[in-house]
Amino acid sequence: MPLTLEQLNAASPADALALLDGLYEHSPWIAEQALAQRPFRSLAHLKHALAHVVRTAELDAKLALIRAHPELAGKAMVAKSLTAESTNEQSKAGLTQCTPEEFDRIQQLNAAYNERFGFPFILAVRGPRGTGLSKREIIDTFARRLDNHPEFELAEALRNIHRIAEIRLADKFAAEPVLGNDVWDWHEKLAEHSDPGFAEKGQLTVTYLTDAHRACAQRISHWMRDCGFDSVEIDAVGNVVGRYHGAQPTAKTLLTGSHYDTVRNGGKYDGRLGIFVPMACVRKLHRAGRRLPFGIEVVAFAEEEGQRYKATFLGSGALIGHFNPAWLDQKDADGVTLRKAMQHAGLCIDDIAKLQRDPAQYLGFIEVHIEQGPVLNELDLPLGVVTSINGGVRFIAEMIGTASHAGTTPMDRRRDAAVAVAELALFIEQRAAKDGDSVGTIGLLNVPGGSINVVPGRCQFSLDLRAPTDAQRDALVRDVLDELARIAQRRGLRYTLEESMRAAAAPSAPALQHHWERAVDTLGVPVFRMPSGAGHDAMKLHEIMPQAMLFTRGQNSGISHNPLESTTNHDIQLTIEAFALVLEQLAEEQQP
User: Fold this and answer.
1) Is the pLDDT of residue 77 over 80?
2) 440 has which bridge partners?
3) DSSP assignment of 501-541
């Protein structure tokens, strides 16, 4: 019989420890300390308690935990001395059936890894879906992580240990994340569509109105119909819009969704998680034959990334009346205008103006998104409540000095443009850190016509400055531009500066943010509030209606805009449950 929380909470300390035996390899101290927090409100609560014990342990205890794990396809496997849990996991990943070549490669990697880090390589070989990674995926991950910094790799090993424990715990409790698995599978299937030039390399790229993009729209629309949406359409800019009616025809609507386009060679979850999570919730309502006191409108936004045309947030912008007709004359890298692309896709340009929503008809906008950063991972938290989407300002600039001979120009007589920009970069790093949540980046840095033996006379660079509030952002911008002027004057340089983008901060609506907080707390997860450093469709809808977001933890230290972007079936399941709880809270509010 599967274990239950009631059994665990009621058991004696010794019996409870026995019930959790095997979660962490040869390390019963973790469960022993976590059990002091009983009663557990949920499995998520128990998982966090276990992870918190490890997180607050001394370094020696963490290293001992890692070293308690066997090598992958190592001596313990050959000698058949693995624990039952490890035997099952390595067997599911096919490591017990390695070819001689695969076995030799893994042994080489084991030796190199141990020599570099001093502990065995740890990988949750059952993977983010729980069904097992392929041997190719395991070997590739092994080789990639050899290049990590030792401190980072220690943390990555512990994160994988927690994932192993999470899967083992789910097995003990027979807690299958059914909805999380479905949504995980939707991401995999949608990722089958990728633009030419990338698909052949196994890379995911879906840019606005390409064949792959249109195929994604069709697949999402079919899934929406299968989920039980009352109406599904592809609108005049390519958004996929699914509507699930409320109990009364006059009911207001909750708007939600995110984007399905990607950056080049990007990940499978950026944007798409925010489409599939509400779809899963609507499907659950439909299967139960249930209507809420409000309607649900899920929009898969066609364009957010600005990859093919310089029309970022085109999809969500159209819903607030922000479509610039001048965009239609923009050309992509192949010379195809946006107008031509839209006509080829069968979109009716004349209908774009009709897409604007009336905010009086809506309760607001909520969006789920993968975090795209390392914070939740480092805190061992599956969910984060967004307090604000950072406002930002971008500049394109050039520092201008004098190119001169690198060998004959004394150091105190140079007018080096590149060094001046480097000095500014260091100032930005220090200044942004003073605010906590402010960030500043020089992402483009170019010395045109540079030569190894010439002092740079010109340096082209970008500035990207962001903060959770407009006032904080503007203070950062002011300080950085003042320092830029001081550096140029002191070094005898001049510069050009052009503002290329300005976006206002989008603080979460307190009421909607509170709904997310209540949902997360109900799930037994600590409520962690955080700003969003990245822009999202929610910041566009913020201009006409209240909005609030929920972040889901990503794997691989939360990396995003990268093929390594990932999350787990269990974290997706929690996200779906949080979304469903918000629906219930809103339903209570809307009752007459």
Assistant:
1) no
2) 465
3) EEE--EEPPHHHHHHHHHHHHHTT----EEEE-S--HHHHH
Tokens of 283: 């499907």
Residue 439 has pLDDT above 90, yes or no: yes
Q: How far is 382 from 478, CA to CA, in rounded Å? A: 36
What residues are paired with 386 via a beta bridge? 530
- Report the pLDDT value the prediction gives residue 78, as an integer from 0 to 100: 64
Beta bridge partners of 243: 231, 297
For the stretch 79-100, pLDDT in tens is: 676 777 777 777 777 777 888 8
Tokens matching residue 334: 């192949």
CA distance 43 to 175: 9
Q: Nearest CA to 314 among 440, 326, 94?
A: 326
Residue 67's alpha-carbon distances to 61, 121, 157, 352, 475, in angstroms, are 10, 9, 10, 60, 48
Q: What is the DSSP letter of 302?
A: S
Residue 71 has pLDDT above 90, yes or no: no
Task: Yes or no: say if 378 and 559 are a contact pair by the CB < 8 Å rule.
Answer: no
Summarize the confidence of residues 373-397 as an average pLDDT: 96
Q: How far apart are CA 112 and CA 148, in angstroms?
A: 13
Sort strands 547-552 and 362-370 into parallel, antiparallel or unpaired.
Answer: parallel
pLDDT tens-digit series, residues 23-37:
999 999 999 999 999
The structure tokens 């600039």 sit at 397
- H helix intervals, 306-368: 314-318, 338-344
Q: Which two tokens stand for residue 293?
A: 């006191």
Residue type, 222: H
Amino acid (one-letter) located at 397: A
Tell me the mean pLDDT in the region 337-363: 97
3-state class (DSSP) for residue 490: helix
> What does the block give as tokens for 584?
């219930």
Dump the DSSP string for 389-450: EPEEEEEEEEEE---EETTTS-GGG---HHHHHHHHHHHHHHHHHHTSS-EEE---EE-TT-
pTM over 0.85: yes
User: Average of pLDDT values for 472-488?
Assistant: 98
Tell me the residue type at 13.
P
- pLDDT tens column, 548-576: 999 999 999 999 999 999 999 999 999 99
Q: Among all chains, which residue has been given the structure tokens 């019930």?
A: 19
Crossing angle (nearest 10°) for helices 150-173 and 100-117? 120
Phi/psi at 496 (5° precision): -115, 150
Nearest to 312 by CA among 165, 80, 166, 502: 502
User: Mean pLDDT, to the nearest integer, of 526-554?
Assistant: 96
First to last CA, the chain: 44
Neighbours of 83 (CB within 10 A): 16
Closest CA to 353 of 324, 331, 311, 326: 324
Q: Which tokens in the block code for residue 402? A: 């004098």
Is residue 374 within 8 Å of residue 556, measured between CB atoms? Answer: no
DSSP state of 175: -
Scored b (16 or more CB within 10 A) or e, 389-423 reads bbbbbbbebbbbbbbbeeeebeeeebbbbbbbbbb
As a whole number of angstroms, the distance between CA 537 and CA 237 comes to 15
